[in-house]
Structure formats: structure tokens, C-alpha cells
Fold each of these.
Amino acid sequence: MRRVWPTTVRARATAGACAVVAVALGLASFTLLNLLEANLLRAAQSDARRQAETVAQLAAAGRLDRVRAPARGVDFIQVVGADGRVLFASLNLVGAPPLPPPGPGVPGGRFHTWTGRPLDGEHRQRVVQVVTDTPDGPATVYAGASLRDVDAADDTTAAALAVGVPLLLATVGLVTWRVTGRALRPVEAIRAEVAGISDRDLHRRVPVPATRDEVAHLAQTMNATLDRLEASGARQRQFIADASHELRSPITVVRTQLEVALAVRDPELWPELIGGALEDIERLQHLAADLLLLARIDAAQPVAAVRLDLTALVCEAARTRAGDRVPVHLSLEPGVEVTGTGLWLSRIVTNLVGNARQYAESRVDVTLRTTGSAAGARTAVLEVVDDGPGIPAADRERVFERFTRLDDSRSRDHGGAGLGLAIARDLAAHHGGTLTARSAARGARLVLRLPTAHGTART
């Protein structure tokens, strides 16, 4: 069956349409022939019955001599007595033997119908027999109607169906083939275009037909997917370029320091040179760790469904930085629980607090609260505010881009590779939350929102 069944959508659609129409036409033809024959037989039987009942009434009155020639539609009449003697016969049955007796019958309105060939003609006969009482005893009246019209109608209808059904099937197949081919032509154009798109020309797009149907929606979805692939490729290339640039600078510095240490013969200068090289190596380690974390985030690894105390986690993150030059002031709602990975949530808080302390002048305020109805889903809101130079309104989205450093006070001189806030936002989104930069009276205000353990967390 697999070898016989068509493999293309166009051929399968055509074969399916033809099969359905063939079955429907077969049932319709069978029903039509049966209904036509039943109606014609009923009409012929009605004519014969009326004729037989009329003759039976005359026979019951003893007036068979008053029987006229068969009416229109009736071929013959014969009246047979109980002793098998023919009491009356139409001209075309004169001298013919009596028809077979019907068997025991009750005089009156009883009659019997069968199909036979009493005249040995080409066509069938519908014969009606009526039993009645006559002055000479019981008698049976036979009236037969020819079925030549029924046979002719059956033959004509069957011949018309034999010619018309194949022609109709051929028409259905041809129309389905053409219509399916025209409908699938845009799909083939989409397939050909997608097949020709490589990783170097993701700017190409598939043609969108003007039909506004499912094929047009498919083309639009395909173009949207290509947009995402192009944007992802551009981000990846930019990420590689930025990472290469960030790695090149410390590597160059380390190499220079080591070359100087190798050229200097004074042992007293070696600790200073080696110490500087170690600082740059530590910076490389942090950068490599950040890049690895970003790779894991981009891989969309699922978040572990672990219930965590966000209040305790924020306290721990602030305590680990107690020795920094700017103190952190905490205002935390107790018992705020979220669902996620403790290491990654700690990294979010550490990055936010570290970024604030890096640019703050005298203090950093960390506030944790929950919002939402008590019966419904609640949201944990963490705000980190510093009193530094702040973030301009035009840069409040750009500051979350990877390897982004703002000019002036938030410059390269303050250190860092520009990945802290980008990592924090990606981790927040991975936990079903958001991280945004908001306006503040002074300095920068970063707002983290996470669904609480009673809400819904993204996995």
C-alpha cells in the first residue's frame, strides 16, 4: 500500500478527493436507480391493480361480457375460475393457458403481485391477481402491466451514469490537481527560498502571498523565524567580537608585564610586575566565568524548582560586601520566598549591589517588599538605589546590553567588562521576572521583580 499510495500532497489530495467523490457517486447512483425503479414499478402496479379490481367487480356481478379492452398501461387481462377454466381473456391471451393459480385465497380485497413473463415478451410484466366471488363460484382476475418503460429507464439511467460518473471523476481529479497545485505553489516557493538560505545570508526572506490564508500565515511565521535567527546571529557575532576585544586587552597587558619581568634583572621589581600580572589574570578569570554563565543562560537550561528565602539571600549578599567603602542599608520584608536556583539568584543580587556600590558616593539602599493581592499571585520587588551619577533616561535600556559601558562616570576606568547588569537581567528573565532601570531623585534605581513561591514561576 505504501508503494501504491501517492507520496506528494498534491497527489494525495487528488486521490482522496476522487475516492470520496467516487464513493458518493456510487451511493447516489445506486439510490437513484432503486428509487427510479421503485417509482415506475409502483405506477405500473397501480395501473394493473385498478384494472384488476374493475374486472373483479364486473365478474362478481356476472357481467364479464361488459369487460372492455385493457386500459392504457395494462398489457393483458385474464379471468380464471376455480376449476382452472379461463372465463375471460384479452385478445393477446386468447387461447393461452390459464396463469398459475394463486393458491388458497379469501374472496374480496386480497390480491397478490409478482413479476413474470406470461407473454414471453422482451420486457418483464407486473401481474396483479384479485380473488373474487362470481355467480359461478370463486374466480381469480389477472391484470398485467408491461415494465418496458421501467427497463428502458433503468437502461438509460445506467448508461448515463456509466458515462457521466467517470467524466465527473475525471473532472474532479483535474480540478483538484490544478487547484491543489496552485495552492501549493507558494509553499514550493517558500521551500525553495528557505533551501537557498545559508548562515551567511540570513537577510533573505520568503515571499508572502497576498491570499491572507494559511500559506500566507506560514510565510509570515517563517519570516519572523528568520528575523529571530538573523538577530541571534548578529548578537552572537557581536558577542564574539566584544569578548575577543575584552580578552585581548588583559592578555596583552599580562604578556607585556611578563616580558618586562623577564627583561628586568632587578629582583626587587619582580613582585610589583608579577602582582600586576596576577590582577589581570584574575580579571580574565572573572571575565571567563561571566562568559560561561552567559553561555549557560543562552542555552536556556531549566530553572530548578527550589523554594528559597529571598530575604535571607539578600542579607547574605549584602553581608559579603561589608568591607567595601560604601555601606549598604537594608529594608527587607521578612519571609519573602521565591522559586529558583539559589546560586543564580545570589548572582543577581550580588551584581546589582556591586554595581550600585561601584558608582555610589556615600550609600546604597536595598529595599525588598511584595505586591499583589493576598489571595492571588504576589510579586517580590527588590530595589537597589545608589546616590551616584545615575543613568540617563536614554541609556536605561542600553545599560543592560552586553559589554556596554556608559560614558563619563560609568566608564571603563571604574573596571568591569560591562556584563554585570546584562547577566542580572538574563537571569531574572530566566526566573520569570524582570529587571529595569527606573528614575530616581538622585543616582540610579534598579528594580527587580520576581514571582513569589505562591505565584507562577517560569521553568
Amino acid sequence: MIHPVLLCGGSGTRLWPLSRKSYPKQFAKLLGDESLFQASARRLSGIGFETPLVVTGDPFRFIVTEQLAGIEKAPQAVLIEPEGRNTAPAILAAALHLEKTDPDALMLVAPSDHVIPDSDAFRAAVAAAAEQALKGDFVTFGIAPTRPETGYGYLELAKGADLAALCPQPLAGFIEKPGAGRASDMLAAGRFLWNAGIFLFTVRTLRRACEAHAPEILAGVTAALDQAECDLGFTRLAPDPWSELPDISVDYAIMEKAENLSVMPYHGHWSDLGGWDAVWLEAGPDLEGNVCSERATAIECRDTLLRSETEGQEIVGIGLSDTIAVAMGDAVLVAHKSEAQRVKEVVATLKASGAKQATEFPSDHRPWGWFESLATGPRFQVKRIVVKPGAALSLQSHHHRSEHWIVVQGTARITIGDEVKLVTENESVYVPLGAVHRMENPGKLPMVLIEVQTGSYLGEDDIVRYEDVYARR
């Protein structure tokens, strides 16, 4: 059996404003009705595949389980990184977790934000590579290039290797992202593949390579896993040994030093969706080259992407060419399509200026549901809060604010001090400053309420928790 390992800790800054640190691109519905993470989990499933092992960060643990449940899947484990340390520690943590039950487990490591439309063809490529991996090779998957791309790393096939082969081929080495001229030369040479960052190998193979090439990473990850805590079914890696680990990719730490390397050529379609230009391409431009979302209109435009990400918000382009325009309730991006890779510079600039839009998503996702701020001003804030069926917020109090709650959909079970009562649509309650309170959704449909906060400080850190079914800290 193959154990899929899904990595989903990145921030996807090149797809800002839809992808942000608090809600990165792998969880967004960029193409179709499923998120990239859901599509990845579905792709790496079926006959011959175990349920996925996921490595992610603390803010995303409930998003992971919720999105897997949305496609009727459950993870075999979710490992929580105390902080991002790149792919080498994350992959090794997954391997050591699997090693506890099967030292020869076959791992398929993949990012959770790639687009591979033909799942059957990709699973066939994985099956064709399995024997070589079981023999002790690191098998990496190389994508047959279709253009002289400068945004990807490359894999160089060894002499005598066949780019068109349907089985793993010997690998000569890894090539960093090239300039335009070098990329054109490699495309013409016919022995280079795009590096997809997808690997197939056994736990034993990785352990031996770490012992030879990265013993300090092996020691640190082992300590982090040995000292890990179980938290509501999640495995929290210990923060102290984890913080001492280098921030390093598996390519640099292991693959570029190993000799037992093979590459499985893949000739199907693939994209890492690394920018809005890639989204434009993957979405399928019309005859004028335009891609428009719902609530988007293009008038005499060519080769343009127009997206509105907010209900009730219309975006209209007139006479545009080679333009990207993405509108959200709190931020708008307008760029020439050729400058798509520079969007990450926008995030850095906004962070330097202290703009919360750089990292914070307008909708704040929580294990019980989500909320968004509708209006703010001196000493007040208005929020819309959506609570999932059967979910409950923590029992809590605030030092600096009072709250009014107005239920607009469903029924809420409200606790204020010693009183517990049901509040239905068009009814409201008042939560005084300092009162211990909780809201729950006892129904079978989402419950929606409007919250009006008033006080001297309205930050999310003004919460004293007494009980929490999600064991948040």
C-alpha cells in the first residue's frame, strides 16, 4: 500500500489577495467546487492507497479535517508543525510517524496545492514507479516541459535515459530555476523535466539517507516526535527540538546528495498554480482570452482575468488587455499579466506598512465555523458569525468589551452566567462586560448571528477561555 503524505503549510503569497497566511491557496476554491487540498486528497486515493497523512500548521488543523470530511475522507494522522521549517523536517516527521508501524512503508509525498487534472494517469505513473522505490530508490516525478519556463526547477536525465519512458529513468541531477536562455536550451535538449516536488520512496530509504547526509535533522525530528502530544486526535510535534531544526528543503538536505535517484517522467497536464497567470491559463480562457468569475464582466477585453470574490460585489473591465484584476471586500489586486510573479512583493510591502490585509483573510475560519468583520469604528465593531451545526464556541469572558447578539438564521443556545436559553431568529441578547458566556448551535443547519461589540479594546486576544471543546490554547 502507498501512504500519501500531503504537505500543506505554505502561504501562497503569489495568489494574494485570495491566498494569505491565515488562509492559504491550498484551501481555496480556485478552480471548480473543490479546494486544491481536497482535489489532491481525492487524487491520491483509491485502490492501493492508504488514507492520507497530513503535515500542516496549527491554524489549519481543523480546516484540514473539515475539508477532508467534505469529500468523505478521514486522515490516518495529522501532524502539527510548531512552525514552518521547510520540507525536509516535515517529510521526515511523516516518515518517522509511519516507521512506528511499518519501517518499510512506501510514501508518496506531494504538495497539496498542485493541479493534475487526469488523476487516473497520475495514479498509473505512481504505480509504474512503485517497484523502483521499493528497491531503495528515491523516485521523483518530472513533468515533461511544454515551454521554456523560468519559474520551475528542473531535473536532468542521465545519459541514455528516455524522456518518453513509462517507467523510472536514471537522474543526473537537479537544476535551479534557470534564466530564459537556459530554459530554452533545456527545452530544446529534450532531456530535462520540470521538478514537481513529488517523491516516492520507503521510510527505510529516507532514514538511511538522513543518517548519511542529515543526521542533525534526523535527531531533531526524532526528538520532536518522541516528545509530541496527542491533542484531539492531532499529533503536536514538540516545539523546543523543532525550533532548533534548519529551515531547509528536502532537495537540499537529501536529494541533491543521494546517489539512489530515479525520475518518473509524467506527460500529463500539471501546474503548481504559482501565480494568477497560471490560474488564468488553468481556468480556460474564452475565445477572446478572458476568464471571468461570477459577478465579473469583460467588455472589449482580451487575455484578461477578472474575479470577484465577495458576494454582492461586481467587477467590470473595459478595454483591458493582459490584465489581472481580483477584487475582495478588503483588498483589490490589479496587475499586468506579465507581472504576476511580483505579487509576492505586494505582500512584503503591505506587511512593512502594517496592513493587516497582507496576512489576514477577511473571513476568520475557526473550528466551530467562521466570522467576518462588517463594520468597525472607535469603540465598536460589527461581525457576522456563522456557527456549524452542533458546534460551540468556548466558554469565555472579555475584559474590555460587551456584546449584543442578534440571531438572523437558525437557533442559538446561549449561556450567560448561570442562565442558559434558546434564542431564535429576530431575537437578541446582551452579554455584559466580564460576563462568562458561550454560544452553541443545537440545530442541523448553520446558525448565523450579528454581533455588535462595544468597548475600549476589541482585539481577538481579549478572550479568557474556561472551557473549549477544541482544546485551543
Amino acid sequence: MSSFAITSSSVSSDVIPRAIKRLFHQASIGDQSYRFMFKREPADEVVAIDCETTGLNLRTDDIISIGAVRIRGDHILTSERFERVARPDADMRTDAIKIHRLRQIDVEQEAPIRNLLPDFLRFVGGRPLVGYYVDFDIAMLDKYILPFIGIELPNPRIEISSLYYERKYGDAPPNISIDLSFSAILADLEIPSLAQHDAFNDALMTAMMYVVLRDKAKRGVRIPRENNQAVFDPTGG
């Protein structure tokens, strides 16, 4: 989970275009051995993911670690996890090192991200991908996946900040201050804060958020709002 400024909002606004794109990808996939990505996975299974990167520029920055964990129903399957560090092509900048605590020397012996893709794609299969501002993570992954198999990730996406917004602010009056930061979600859902900007820890906390928010939605439970809301801060600050 990057702490650089991210201003994405809900990822559900282009559901129809994505459905059309999924059909196009299914017909045009370059490597037929990856057609399993379009297979319906076991019911009620999703994968929480997180990527640490050298920055937020999709063109010039690279992934340096990927964390993912499977969720089945209300159970987080910590024994079914994906955790890898990759050697980026981009230089490791000082500001990024301060966040994810991985130095050039820590990654120089690791495989490049393209070598990790087969295992990652088989791990996620066709399951929906859950994330915090998941569009960014998927866009970074697609930078490598598209030239590798000829398509982008076709998996449905579930945005944690959107689920949280619906439970807390979905019935809010106009002009209320909104805080969608990672720390605010953790606090409201009473989820323990693990060491952040570690890809697997962030994926695990995201998985816990998903399970709690899913349960609240099933039971019709909303998250209480204070009279004085914090100012809007979507960046996790």
C-alpha cells in the first residue's frame, strides 16, 4: 500500500466497460495456458492484494513486492498466501526506501517481477481482487502482465474504501467531512495495525477489513459517525 498521494475514488463506475473488456480479453488472450483466469473459482472466494512500488508513476516506477492472501467466506486463509520481493528496473529512491524499508541491496539478488508472474497468476486465478485503492495496484501489475500474456488482469475488483464509505457515509447528510484513510478504516473497524508498507501485512489488514465490512453489510449495520468528522484525507496520512 503506497503512502504517496492517491486520489482515486470508487472503482465501480465503469462496470459495463470492464465487462466488455473482459469478453475481449477472453477472446484475445495470447497465451492459452492462462485461460484459467476466466474460470469461475470456488464460490465465495476472493484474494486481497497489495503491491509496494518505487513510486506512483505507472510509466517509470516498478513493483518491488507483492502480498496476497485468499479469503473464503468469512475466513482469511493465512496458509494460502503469496509473498514475494522483486528486483525493480527503476532506481530505488530515498523517499520510497523510507516508506517500504527495502534498500537496493535488499532486492538486487531477487528475480525481476516478470519472473514472478506465473506463480502470482496461478495463485489468484479468476478470483475477485480486493484492495485499498486497488486500481493502482492492478494498473502496476498490468504493466507487466499485458506484455506477458497479451491481456490485462480480467479479475473483478472490490474496493475497500468504497465498501467503507457505504457503511459509514452512505446515508450521511450533504457537506459532511469524510476520511477514507487506511488508518481511519482500521480504527473504525477495530482491526489491529500491523507494520504498514509491508505488502503482505497490508494485504492481510485489507482482508480483515473486507471480512468485517462484508459482515456489517450482511447484517445491515452501519459505522457510527462522530458529530465532528475529521477532514477528508484519502492518502492514509
Amino acid sequence: MTASLVAASPAQAILGGTESPHAYSFMGSFQPSYPAPPRPDGHGCGVEVLAPRWVLTASHCAGRNPTNAKTGVPEGWKVRVGSLDTTSGGEVAEVDHYYRLATNRDEGGFWGRDMALMHLRTSVKAMPVRIASTTPADNSPVRIMGWGMTCDDYQDPACFPRRLREADTVVQPTSACPSASSGELCIGSSDGSVTASNYDSGGPALVRENGQWAVAGVVSGPDESGKTLYTDVTRHADWINGIISGTHVPPDDRIPNVEGAANLGNCVGSVVSAPASRPQDPALLLTNGHCVEGQRPAPGAALVDQPADRQAPITDRHGYPKTTVRAVRLVYATMTGTDIALYRLDQTYAQLKAAGVKVFRLTSTPVRAGDPLTMAYTGDRLNCTAEAVVPHLREGGYQEDDSIRYATGDDCAPQHGMSGSALLAPDGTTVVGLHNTHNDAGEQCTDNNPCEVGPDGAVTSVRGRGYGQQVHMLAACLTAGSKLDLSHQGCTLTTATRRR
């Protein structure tokens, strides 16, 4: 379903189905190592072999590449085909390219076009399945199959079957699926007792033609009626055949260089060094103060030298994990004056350099109006400009000073989840600020609705405006050994009582 490789959501169990009595040569399990599906067997989606080096699946299954590219080269993706079991048997092949018919950014729309081809590094011997010759008529019999969930508990391994399951059902009129879009098939029993499930995404709707199976659709997502929406594969046979034959192969997307961004789950971080840093010093990771785990620093105060145990994968240039670091100490965090947090890591700068990890430098110069900035998110690089430096920014009881307001535009539209992204100077290596907030609803000074306060006290609040925070004051507070000294000359950070 739509959530099969995304977030966990309630899913109907595979009702009316049974374990398949025999394997289907063309049926396979897509098993990406990144992002790894949260189930013991590693299964993420269904695939169907169309040619010795080509499999068909849903676009959203191939859409969890880090940069949401439409066409490109993955890392750590494989398929197991021709087996009943997701963990053994059949043939295993690596995926070395993906081609998505549509993404959620396409002007032509995503629904009804949720389909992708994946190219295999080596050929498989499996007997391919043909594409159906035409859209199946209403009430046509179809067979559906997959390794989707059989119950709703994402913590229970028993809900994730390793053995292939199948069910026979029918194509319903599209009017029976209120969510159906053009190009989608409505499939399942009228009462919802036979349907697909989460982790069945990309799996087939099969029809019989000339005594053989043919694929008519692939699972896209659930319908509110309890039935399942399938992308109608027959409508896109020309697109499929053009790629497989090599006559109409889309070019690869230009992938932004996202090297060095650290994924903190709900936020982003980056490894930074200060002028006093030495290769043998424990490395430091910078993010927002509001991104710390547990209780946030109180207004007017800071957290200093606190316990921490937090893992963060750091991206390579294409957004895949280069290595994973562990934060072992929260050195400093505040949301007053600025919005920053600094963690000490379990590896030194020298160790990270040897692993090929990008290490950024901390600036000692404040951002000024007109400065060009690059926002270093884990899956993208946003081109921003400092439109103004705001004397005071207030949000939910906190106040930051000399905040950076971005010029509005399509190239700089931060979203939730981007907090902590480094703002880089034109050299691509110097961190001059941190993205931390944007105004969601136009409210004044509430959570997620920051407001500007001018020198005369005038309050301004504009929906959609994004802001970052200065970090230039941090370098003066760091000494050799990645130690924090709030009394060091030039250090102007908010202080707090040290607690262990």
C-alpha cells in the first residue's frame, strides 16, 4: 500500500487469502538495505519479472531513494524472485537502476501512475510475466498476491509473513472505490474481506490470457472502502516497453551533492570543527536546541554537559549512509539568543576523515543581509539568500536575536523535518548558520509561527517565512579537546548551571 515503505499506518489484514501452494517464477520480493523495511525478513514491496534484467513495481517503492529522484542509481537494493519465501530460495539479484513513471512532484499527478521499473545488475532465469493486453473489465476475476501484513501490530513479527500469500477476487467498478483516480483499478471483494495489505505494494493483479498469467495492475494504495487501488499497467505499456527495449530511456536525474548531512530522525545535524579543533579530538555534531531528546532547554537558560546516547547516519554525496556516529554527550543546547545544540561524538575527527566523512568548519563571522546560503538537508540542497537579519524572533516563549530571514522563492522553501540543517557559505564547507523554523499559519509568536520584533517593538508575522539562526558565537566558546568554555574570551552564549 502507499505506506509500505513509508510510515506505519493501520492496515487491513490479508483476508480471504491463503498461502500459495507453489512458487510463481515471475513473482519477487524487493528488499532494500536502505531504507531498511522495519520487518525481520527485509521485505519491502512486491515485484514482477518482465524480462531477464527487468522487474516491475510501484513508484513509491522506488521512491525511498534519499533524494526522491525519478531516475537514478540505488545502493543496497536487491530482489528475490521465484521463491515462496522472502528469506531463501529462488534467485537473488542486485538492482542497479530505477525508473519511476511518476513522483509526487509531477504536474501530471501521481495516482494512476504509481509504477516503476528496476533494472537488475545480472539476469535472472525466471520466466517473465506478460503485460495484459487490455484493462480488465468490471467484475473480471483477478489473482492478487504478496507478503503483506496479516495483522496490524508492527511490533509483532508474526504479522509479517515470510511465505507468499494469494487470493482470488474481482475488479470492481471504479465507482466502488471513492478514492480512485483515472488510471487506477479498484480491486477486492465488495465487503473488503479479500484485499491487499501493507507491504503488498508493487504486487500484481493477475488475469488469465491464453491460458497464462498476465499482469494488469500493481498495488498502489488502500481505498477508504476497504478495497485496494492498483495502477493500471496496461495504460503504460508503451512507457515500459520503451525502457526495456532501450528506445526511450529517461536520463538520470541530477542528484544534488548532499554529503555530510546527519539524519537525526526529526531533525538534521552536521559534524563541525572549530579553529581550536585537533585531529585527535572527539568530533562535534551541531543541530538545533529544539532538536535535543527529552526536555528542551528552558527560556533564558541552556543545557550544559548532559548525558546523551543518540545515533546519526551521515550521508554520502547521494544521500545514502556513509557511516553512523553516536552522540555520547550533549555539550551544550539553548533556544535563547540562538537555537543550537552541540553533541560530542564517539569518534575523532581523524577517524571520521579516514572513513571519508564530510566535516564542516564553524564560522566566526555573522551572516549579513544579502549573503547567499545553501541549506544542507539530508535529501536536498536548497539555495537561499539572507533577505534580512531580524533583531528579535519570538516563538512559543523563546526569543532569538539577529535571526536570518530567507528571501522567499521556489528554491528556498523549508519544511518540517529540516530543522538543524546547516546553512553553508558559498565554499560549501563553512557553516554560517542553522535553519530552525518557519511560519506555518500566519499566527503571531506561537509554536511553529515565529514572529519578528523590530527595534521599535513592532510585531510582524507572515505565513510561510523561513528563518535560520546565527552560529558565529559558538567557535569562541570551544577549546582543544572539543571542550566548552563559556567563560572563554569572546564567548557570548547563554550560560547555565552544569548538571551531570
